[in-house]
Amino acid sequence: MAKKEDAIAQQKPENIQGVNIEEEMKHSYIDYAMSVIVGRALPDVRDGFKPVHRRILYGMWEMGLDYNKAYRKSAKIVGEVMGNYHPHGDSAIYDSMVRLAQEWNLRYPLVDGQGNFGSVDGDPPAAMRYTEARLAKIAQEVLADIDKDTVEFGPNYDESREEPLVLPVKIPNLLVNGSSGIAVGMATNIPPHNLGEVVDGLCALIDDPEISIESLMKLIKAPDFPTAGFILGKDGIKDAYRTGRGSLTIQARAEVEEDKRERQRIIVTELPYQVNKAALIETMAELVRDKKIEGIRDLRDESDRDGMRIVVELANGAVAQVVLNQLYKHTNLRTTMGVIMLALVNNQPRVLNLKGLLHYFIEHRKDVIVRRTRFELAKAERRAHILEGYKIALANLDKVIAIIRKSRNTEEAREGLMKAFNLSEIQTNAILELRLQQLTSLERLKIDEEYLGLIKLIEQLKGLLASEKKLLATIKEELAKVKLDYGDVRRTHLAAKAGELNVEDLVADEDVVVTFSHAGYVKRVPASAYKAQKRGGKGVAAMGTREEDFVERLFVASTHDTLLIFTNLGKVYWKRVFEIPEASRAAKGKHLSSLLPLKQEGIAAVFAIKDLNKEKADLVMCTKQGLVKKTALQEYSNPRTAGITAITLTKGDELIGVKMADDKDDMIMATHEGMSIRFPLKEVREIGRTGQGVKGISLEKNDYVVDMVVVNDPKGSLLTICESGYGKRTELVEYRVQGRSGKGLINVKVTDKTGKVIGVKPVTDDDELMLITSGGTMLRMKVSDIKTTGRNTQGVRVIKVREDDRVVAVAQLAAKDEEEGE
Predict the structure, then answer these.
(1) Contact 726, 759 (CB under 8 A)
(2) Hey, which bits of 148-244 come out as E strands?
(3) CA–CA distance, 19 with 22 (Å, rounded to integer)
(4) Which of 41, 50, 339, 348 lies closest to 174 in space, CA to CA?
(5) Which among 381, 389, 374, 378 is positioned nearest to 426, based on CA atoms?
(6) pTM (predicted TM-score)
(7) Which stretch of DSSP H or E encloses residue 7?
(8) Which tens digit of pLDDT belongs to each residue from 572-611?
(9) In the chain, which residues fall in CATH 2.120.10.90?
(10) Residues 646 and 590: beta-carbon distance below 8 Å
(11) Which of 508, 515, 658, 817 could bridge 605 with an S-S bond, Cβ 3.0-4.6 Å?
């Protein structure tokens, strides 16, 4: 045996060394883990990309696939990226590129795909030979200035070319698009956010580096998912933003409505982030089949190109809210998302809070702008150096020509010029390459102008490099431009968890303009979106509408107010103002039927109050046929999803107005034909919620009531607006108090020029108005621009309307909104 071991030892090569297997495995595994962490699974905190996504975008940029160029086959893109930068298989590259194009995965998609790129149902994309792609428009902000030495480059996998180690992103991509990945022993899951909110947070951090996370959370309220839905509660958001780790509860948007047979059904229009719609419906069907959820008689998917719509038909007698709660409990209509804000900082994985993520992006932008400025400065100085040589040559043109003519070759001419005029080799070469046409007087003038422009540019660039303040101002300017170009409204809304009553703390308390269209579309827009104009102006577009629709009602309210929405059929519904979808000034908004269970009803009045239970006042209602009713506000303080009866109406009558008042006030009712009546409200007795009311005015044939006013300031005036854009102000003292149910007095002299009356408002000189036409045009103006006239007059033109247009609504703005409007 010993002889055998000796023989083996004699055959052992000298270059084999013994190692400790435990230590070898430890070091090898650590090397592998770090390779996965740095090179595959985790995003860089600066640009928010993993290497594969960075290589795809850079490869497409190299191929010239800008957003305004032609699409290219996905197979070609994948081949280029795989051959040049990412040798890990075509399927990995294609899957990553597809995700960059899916609008339900990325809040702001960076690739513009053409063809089948999959669906929210989990359908796979078509093969890469069938689809085409190019960069999305916002991707130009990701790759901007990459050719100006703004970022570090390193060798690719075979060292045949170089690739960027980070991209010079102008958008805070890590937060706005989020990221997820599983490395070795760690994982990241950063939710997407709203671009406008993140930009506001970055600007606030630049202005105040010591700003608290709580202050940042007032600007960056919560994640904003591409599939919208709701985030329930704020505790998980606070944890994630403070510590980098938290848990979010995300819920679908589901509303209860009734069909023509008055049978209830649940309509799901928005899903939690990354929920597979087809799998969700299959799970629902299994629960119904296994009788784990009862009360569902039909289930179908009515989604189309206009949006998502899952319909859950309920059986007779089923309680909609009970069924919906069961669906929330047993399906992915309500899910949780674990937030781990882990990213690479200097190639080391770190969990960061909200302020940390914003800080590193700002530092990256600083580095990018400094490198870009140095590049542009060097380029400008090189050009200025050449132009200085041109100026010397042009000032001594005859001598320059003589030296060149006497020279036997180019080298001799170069040496002669350098010696004669003390020029550099770069300047001399440029002079020798001058064309004869550049010796004209006009070309000389151009050289002088270019040189002066370069001197100013060089001074500006040096000033930027020397000033931290200017550098930060440049970052803010570029961020503001990105927000202006690509910012949009929040999609994911915030809602309270059970027992959490202060969800409005997550919503800024601000004045908004709430707009209702005739076809039932509703939206809210910040009041600051409109600027005050002079009387007679043309106005600005308030809402985009279809030809058959027009804007019918608008008013100003706080986001924390509660809306009492009264219908023309005498019902009332409840809605918080912050629950109304926010939209841009020209957007159409969302249909009211998706927010309230309306039954072919029109909106008669919308009433905003602070607190239903604390308000000690009466609601005064007015009907089209001249009835008036007074009821205590607290009788409407118990909201129900299906609404309650606000007033009992006779056949053919409609509810047209609701106000808060007390017995000290007077009431003015105005009619379509220009009549009005004023009487004290103490003459109207208080009756119950379901009562009919009493007669307020006696109407002539074919006349009807269009509006009502509660008078509590005898020094004010009454504004009357007519369909053709005419209006007038009349002192309230000219409307004498009469007994209830009389015929009244003439309010305005109605003619073909003025048109019929559409509304009246009590106003003062400090008030502002918003007028809106059926064509969707809005005019914001000061009441003081309308002169005061007598009661029986036509008034003046307050808004220009086309022959086919008409004024449909008038609303008041509080004086405090003036600064926002300006």
Answers:
(1) no
(2) 153-155, 162-164, 179-182, 187-190, 230-232
(3) 9
(4) 50
(5) 389
(6) 0.63
(7) helix 2-11
(8) 888 888 778 777 777 777 777 767 777 777 777 777 777 7
(9) 507-821
(10) no
(11) 658
**Model pLDDT for residues 460-517, shown as the tens digit of each residue:** 999 999 999 999 999 999 999 999 999 999 999 998 775 443 455 545 677 888 887 7
3-class DSSP assignment, residue 633: helix
> What sections of 629-699 are H helices per DSSP?
none
Closest Cα to residue 706, out of 676, 737, 667?
676
Residues 6+ positions from 519 with CB-CB distance below 8 Å: 545, 546, 548, 549, 591
Identity of the amino acid at 347:
N
Instruction: Tell me: pLDDT of 796 over 90.
Output: no
The answer to whether 515 and 591 have CB atoms below 8 angstroms apart is: no
The DSSP secondary structure of 469-534, one letter per residue, reads HHHHHHHHHHHHHHHHHH-----SEEEPPTT---GGGGS---EEEEEEETTSEEEEEEGGGS--B-
Note the pLDDT of residue 817.
Answer: 39
Phi, psi (rounded to 5 degrees) for 645: -75, 130
Q: Check if the beta carbon of residue 571 is closer than 8 Å to that of residue 644.
A: yes
* The pLDDT of residue 40: 67
Short-list 317, 278, 319, CA closest to 299: 278
Transcribe 402-447 into DSSP letters: HHHHH-SSHHHHHHHHHHHHT--HHHHHHHHT--GGGGSHHHHHHH
Angle subtended at Cα 150 by Cα 147 and Cα 154, rounded to the nearest 5 degrees: 85
Cα-based angle 336, 339, 345 (whole degrees, multiple of 5):
165
Query: What is the spatial distance between Cα 816 and Cα 502, in angstroms, rounded to a whole number?
Result: 26
The domain 507-821 having CATH identifier 3.90.1150.10: the answer here is no
Cα–Cα distance for residue pair 291/22, rounded to 1 Å: 55
Q: Which helix (H) or strand (E) holds 590?
A: strand 590-591
| Domain span(s) for CATH 3.30.1360.40 in the chain | 253-332
Q: How far is CA 527 from CA 336, 487, 531, 576, 798, in A?
A: 35, 18, 9, 17, 21
Question: Which of 245, 252, 246 has the alpha carbon at shortest distance from 228?
Answer: 252
Catalytically annotated residues: 130
Axis-axis angle for helices 441-466, 354-395 (nearest 10): 150
Place of tokens 């602070």: 610
Write out the E strands in 143-295.
153-155, 162-164, 179-182, 187-190, 230-232, 245-251, 253-258, 264-270
Q: Rounded mean pLDDT of the chain?
A: 86
Q: What is the pLDDT of residue 714?
A: 74
CATH of domain 253-332: 3.30.1360.40
**Structure confidence at residue 183 (pLDDT):** 76
Contact 122, 278 (CB under 8 A): yes
Sign, CA dihedral 460-465-471-477, equals positive
